[in-house]
Design a protein that fits this description.
The chain is an alpha+beta fold. It contains 7 helices and 5 strands, in the order H-H-H-H-E-H-H-E-E-E-E-H. The chain has helices at about 1-5, 25-35, 40-50, 55-65, 85-90, 90-100, 145-160, and strands spanning about 75-80, 110, 115-120, 130-135, 135-140. The N and C termini lie far apart (about 40 Å).
Length: about 160
C-alpha cells in the first residue's frame, strides 16, 4: 500500500484525518478528482484502503453521481450550455455540430485525448445564447458555421501542440 500512498501525495486534503470517519467518501472522491481531474482505479483502491469501504462500493458511488469522472478530460474541454435560453436558441444544434466535427457526444473524450464534450446547466451568459466555453474562452450567439470554425481552430492548435 506504500506504493499507492506515494502516488497520492498531492491530494488536496490530509487523507489520514478521514481514517474510519463516516461521511468521508464524497470529500475524498472530490479531492481525488480536484487533484487529478478524474477518479482513477488507483485512487479508488487507495480511498478503499483509507476508509475500509470496498472498492466496488466506491466505484458504485463514483458512477452514480454525475459530478465524478472515471476518465481524464481532454486538453480542450468544450462545455455546451443547456440552460433554458440556450436550449430554446439552439444548444442541440451546437452539440450536433461538435459531434459532427469531433465524433463525440456529451461526457466523452476523443480517442487522441484532445477534446472532451460536457453539458452544463447554465453558463450565465443567457444574452449570448446559445453559448459554449472551450477551456476558459466563452463563445456566444453560435451558429453551426461559427461552431465549426471554432472547433477547427482548436483542432489546428491541438495538431500543432502534438507535433
Amino acid at each position: 500500500m506504500a506504493e499507492i500512498k506515494d502516488n497520492f501525495k498531492t491530494f488536496n486534503v490530509d487523507l489520514w484525518k478521514y481514517d474510519g470517519q463516516e461521511g468521508a467518501l464524497i470529500p475524498l472522491l472530490q479531492s481525488a478528482q480536484d487533484t487529478y481531474g478524474y477518479v482513477s482505479e488507483k485512487a479508488i483502491d487507495y480511498i478503499s484502503h483509507i476508509t475500509g469501504i470496498p472498492a466496488a462500493d466506491i466505484y458504485g458511488v463514483v458512477t452514480f453521481y454525475a459530478q465524478f469522472r472515471t476518465k481524464p478530460l481532454g486538453k480542450f474541454v468544450i462545455k455546451v450550455c443547456n440552460g433554458t435560453a440556450c436550449h430554446v436558441n439552439g444548444a442541440k444544434t451546437v452539440s450536433d455540430t461538435i459531434n459532427d466535427e469531433l465524433n463525440i457526444d456529451y461526457e466523452e473524450t476523443t480517442d487522441d485525448g484532445n477534446f472532451s464534450l460536457v453539458s452544463v446547466a447554465c453558463l450565465g451568459c443567457c444574452s449570448l445564447a446559445p453559448v459554449m466555453v472551450v477551456n476558459d474562452e466563452t463563445y456566444g450567439r453560435l451558429t453551426p458555421a461559427k461552431v465549426r470554425k471554432i472547433v477547427r481552430t482548436y483542432k489546428h492548435k491541438a495538431k500543432q501542440e502534438n507535433q
